Every structure is written in C-alpha cells, then in structure tokens.
Amino acid sequence: QVQLVESGGGLVQAGGSLRLSCAASGSTASINSMGWYRQAPGKQRELVATINSGGTTNYADSVKGRFTVSRDNAKNTVYLQMNSLKPEDTAVYYCNYRPYYSTNGFWGQGAQVTVSS
Q1: Residue 28 CB coordination number (10 Å)
Q2: Phi and psi for 43 in degrees, rounded to 5?
Q3: What secondary structure does DSSP assign to 92-115, as a single string?
C-alpha cells in the first residue's frame, strides 16, 4: 500500500496562483508515475498533469502554459504549480501515485481548489 498526503488547496481570485504538494510513503517504487487529476461538480475526473520517474511530463491541453508539474524523487513528492488560474479550474484535485506494479495506482484524499471570478 501507498499513502498519499496532499496539501496546498484553497481559495484564490482569477489570475492568481496556488501550489499543490503530494507526498507518498509506504510501498513506493523507484519506477513510477505521479500526477494530478481533478473533478469538478457534476463532471468526471480528468487528467491534469503527470510526471514519471524519468521526468517526462504530460499535460491536459486546458492547463498547458499555466500549470507546471514537478517532483522530488528523494522525497517521493510531486508538486503542481498553478498560475493564471481561471474559474473553470475550480475542482477537487487528486494526487495519483502509480508504481510499476500497479495498474491504477493509489489516490490522495483530494484538495479543494476554488477560483473566484
């Protein structure tokens, strides 16, 4: 099992910035992918950004140029720097940790991000 602890959500005005963090512990593996997904009310959970242990990143088109995903392998921690936030970014953001041995990975508890107009 892997435990994930998220932090950094909150309320911000449009155009502002927030930074999310997610630390993994437990049965971690050196080969893995970490990332962020979000779910807005009434919508399905969607990919925001991922980064693998080699540093390769993947972003949803809607956040490219505004969000940056990064990681600290020594701390098993992934970050999401969110700039130029828009009201449509409002959602619960979930951290995902997927080691090589797991198909779906493990999920964090979720962090609410609310962007006011």
Answers
A1: 15
A2: -120, 160
A3: EEEEEEEETT-SS-EE---EEEEE
SS3 8: coil
Contact 9, 20 (CB under 8 A): yes
Residues 6+ apart with CB under 8 A from 112: 9, 10, 92, 93
- Each of the 117 residues of the chain gets a pLDDT tens digit; together they read 899 999 999 999 999 999 999 999 988 888 889 999 999 999 999 999 999 999 999 999 999 999 999 999 999 999 999 999 999 999 999 999 999 889 889 999 999 999 999
Tokens representing 12?
Answer: 């911000």
Strand-pair partners of 37: 47, 94
User: In Å, what is the CA distance from 14 to each residue of 70, 109, 114?
Assistant: 23, 25, 9
**Tokens encoding 117:** 């107009």
Residues contacting 55, CB < 8 A, separation 6+? 71
